[in-house]
Amino acid sequence: MKGQLKKGVEVIPSRENCVYTSCYCEENVWKLCEFIQAQKMVPLDQFAVIFISNDTRTVPLWRQKSGHDDRPVIWDYHVILLKVGVKSDSVIYDLDSVLPFPCSLRLYAAQALRSDRNLRPEYHRKLRVVPANSFLLNFASDRSHMRNSDGTWKMPPPSYPPIFTAESKMNLDDFISMNPAVGWGTVYTLDHFLLKFVEAASTSASSSTTAL
């Protein structure tokens, strides 16, 4: 993965240079975090990994590359990367989206996440927000969730070896789980996530503008 210098300040990987394997979104984001950490141009503590799922593992997302027209794709879970704005807007990195890369969080929330209000309860989304440093240190996957009962692959795996830690070879379910007592990070309902990361940021920016 190569870097692309933006505004002389940040090294941001361009979409076409990212390590990407279809249907392995958690590993794509892990590789993106690994890249950012290696560049040492942007502090990794400005980033958070977001797992989107729910108890029924049926979560709709719009503006996905595998979708059609304005119909949502129903994922069992999806993983994206959030860069929390310090003196700029927060942005989302989603390699499976047709939206810009990166995409402003406000635009992503409006077009990809939308709202739970008109959805049946089994489709309501929750979001586990994990600090990127913690994700890099603790995530492990042996990719067993992508094998059929006969051992064949549901989708071809990445060419690099599985991601392991000293403590675990497979803890993906701890990240997908929306039980706050399990795993790493903080679990939010969609409304609470938007309130914290979109509305609060807008209020802060508005207050700064007023002060000027």
TrEMBL record:
Write one Gene Ontology MF term: protein-N-terminal asparagine amidohydrolase activity
- GO CC annotation terms, alphabetical: cytosol; nucleus
Q: What is this enzyme's catalytic activity, as reactions?
A: N-terminal L-glutaminyl-[protein] + H2O = N-terminal L-glutamyl-[protein] + NH4(+)
The protein's matches in InterPro entries, at most eight in alphabetical order, are given as: N_Gln_amidohydro_ab_roll_sf, NTAQ1, Prot_N_Gln_amidohydro_ab_roll
Q: Hey, what's the signal peptide range on this chain? A: none
Q: Does the keyword Hydrolase apply?
A: yes
What job does this protein perform? Mediates the side-chain deamidation of N-terminal glutamine residues to glutamate, an important step in N-end rule pathway of protein degradation. Conversion of the resulting N-terminal glutamine to glutamate renders the protein susceptible to arginylation, polyubiquitination and degradation as specified by the N-end rule. Does not act on substrates with internal or C-terminal glutamine and does not act on non-glutamine residues in any position. Does not deaminate acetylated N-terminal glutamine.
Q: Which family does it belong to?
A: Belongs to the NTAQ1 family.
Q: What is this protein called?
A: Protein N-terminal glutamine amidohydrolase
Source organism of the structure: Oryzias latipes (Japanese rice fish)
Instruction: Report the gene name.
Output: NTAQ1
